[in-house]
Amino acid sequence: MMKRFKSILLTCFVLLTATAFSQAPFDEGKVQMADGFYAEGKIYVVIGVVSIIFIGIAIYLFTIERKIKKLEEAIKEKK
Fold first, then answer.
1. Residues near 46 by beta carbon (within 8 Å), at least 6 away in sequence
2. Which of 16, 22, 34 is nearest to 8 (CA)?
3. Which of 46, 50, 55, 76 has the most CB atoms at less than 10 Å from its CB?
4. pLDDT (mean) for 31-47
5. For residue 79, what pLDDT is reported?
6. Is residue 43 within 8 Å of 34, Cβ to Cβ?
7. Neighbouring C-alpha atoms within 13 Å toward the C-beta of 66
8. CB–CB of 37/43 below 8 Å?
9. Quick one: average pLDDT of 17-42?
10. 27 - beta bridge partners?
11. What are the CA-CA distances from residue 52 to residues 9, 36, 44, 61 (Å)?
């Protein structure tokens, strides 16, 4: 158990430090990728795709919640 905890902790530490060092310095406070997407009109596509993914995940979670609720009620009826 302790070995698994140490490996999880090490993995988290490596990922956090990797993201900290991967940050590029800002060019006068502008984000070049976002400016490029906005200039080419692709930002709306990005927002649309992210929205569709978020809505899909939300629907999936609500469906799972209903199924779990039905299973819990079935277990209560058996007792």
1. 37
2. 16
3. 46
4. 78
5. 80
6. yes
7. 5
8. yes
9. 66
10. 30
11. 33, 22, 12, 14
Q: Which amino acid is at 49?
A: V
- All structural domains of the chain with their residue ranges: 29-79
Tell me the one-letter amino acid at 51. Answer: S
- Amino acid symbol at 74: A
Amino acid identity at 31: V
Rounded Cα distance between 67 and 79, Å, is 19
In one letter, which amino acid is 28? E
Q: How many CA atoms lie within 13 A of 19 on its CB side?
A: 5
pTM of the predicted model, to two decimals? 0.52
> Residue 4 corresponds to which amino acid?
R
